[in-house]
């Protein structure tokens, strides 16, 4: 399928502001007359959303290998049923979390072999790479505090030790330093509007290329 739209992903630790910024970006793009789709990982369609519930429920004891395959299964479905068809219709797709999250959480966070993760990511995503990725960088302690204040309960990942979340953050930062053209690091500690302005500027530049 030929890609005519643009694929934008938002990454960052829990509570870094991905959903908040995705909504603002969608609103801005719609106003500018673009066709847009807001989606998230794990999830995106009925099948992938069922997998999401399995992955995030604190009641589920999931082995690391099972967790990985569930992420890849959900991504394979999401890309083929939702993202690629939208891109082929010239839609701008804004997705919260994608391949980079697997590298950060399961690779750097859980210690699974990075080469293996990258190889499987490529297969699951059918070779689809985001045109632009925003890394909302935040101290995990601050991010988790915000999540707890907003939701009142924690999911399976939010229950992990702070050292896990610190490794995830470092993993994301490493990825951003390895791919600076695609991954734009933005501090998640500024105001919601300030972060939105920075994202808008970069997206506008990309759209005019
Ligand atoms: N820049 C900001 N400054 C202060 N509070 C913020 C900022 N951005 C988002 N918030 C608030 O922090 C909380 C978490 O934000 P949000 O849900 O957007 O993060 P997220 O990255 O999507 O989290 P999750 O990983 O849990 O999906 C929300 O209550 C939101 O209103
Ligand atoms: Mg969110």
Please give a structural write-up:
It is a single chain. By secondary structure, the protein is an alpha/beta fold. The chain has one domain (6-207): Rossmann fold, CATH 3.40.50. It is 56% helix and 13% strand. The protein is built from eight helices and five strands, in the order E-H-E-H-H-E-H-H-E-H-H-E-H. The protein has a five-stranded parallel β-sheet with strand order 2-3-1-4-5, sandwiched between helices. Helix 4 crosses helix 7. Bound molecules: adenosine-5'-triphosphate (ATP) and magnesium ion. Magnesium ion is lined by residues 18-19, 96.
Q: Supply the number of structural domains.
A: 1
Number of H/I helices: 8
CATH-level-4 superfamily name = P-loop containing nucleotide triphosphate hydrolases
Proportion in β-strands: 5-15%
Q: What ligands does this structure carry?
A: adenosine-5'-triphosphate, magnesium ion
Identify the CATH class.
Alpha Beta
| Fraction in helix | 55-70%
Describe the main β-sheet briefly. 5 strands, parallel
In sequence order, what are the helices and strands, one letter per element?
EHEHHEHHEHHEH
CATH architecture: 3-Layer(aba) Sandwich
Q: Mean pLDDT across all residues, rounded?
A: 93
Can you tell me the CATH topology? Rossmann fold
Distance between the termini: 22 Å
Shape: globular
Strand order of the largest sheet: 2-3-1-4-5
Q: What low-confidence regions span 5 or more consecutive residues with pLDDT below 50?
A: none
Q: What is the alpha-carbon Rg in Å?
A: 16 Å
The structural class is alpha/beta
- Give the total of beta strands: 5
């Amino acid at each position: 399928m030929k890609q005519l739209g643009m694929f934008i992903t938002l990454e960052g630790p829990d509570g870094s502001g991905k959903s908040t910024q995705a909504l603002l970006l969608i609103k801005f793009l719609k106003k500018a007359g673009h066709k847009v789709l807001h989606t998230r990982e794990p999830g995106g369609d009925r099948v992938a959303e069922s997998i999401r519930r399995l992955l995030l429920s604190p009641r589920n004891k999931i082995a690391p290998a099972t967790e990985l395959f569930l992420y890849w299964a959900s991504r394979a479905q999401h890309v083929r049923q939702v993202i690629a068809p939208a891109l082929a219709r010239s839609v701008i797709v804004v997705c919260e979390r994608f391949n980079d999250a697997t590298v950060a959480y399961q690779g750097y966070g859980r210690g699974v072999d990075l080469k293996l993760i990258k190889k499987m990511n490529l297969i699951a995503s059918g070779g689809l790479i985001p045109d632009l990725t925003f890394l909302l960088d935040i101290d995990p302690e601050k991010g988790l505090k915000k999540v707890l204040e907003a939701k009142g309960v924690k999911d399976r990942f939010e229950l992990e030790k702070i050292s896990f979340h610190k490794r995830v953050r470092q993993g994301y930062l490493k990825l951003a330093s390895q791919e600076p053209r695609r991954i734009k690091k933005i501090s998640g500690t500024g105001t919601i509007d300030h972060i939105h302005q920075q994202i808008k500027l970069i997206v506008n530049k990309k759209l005019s290329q």
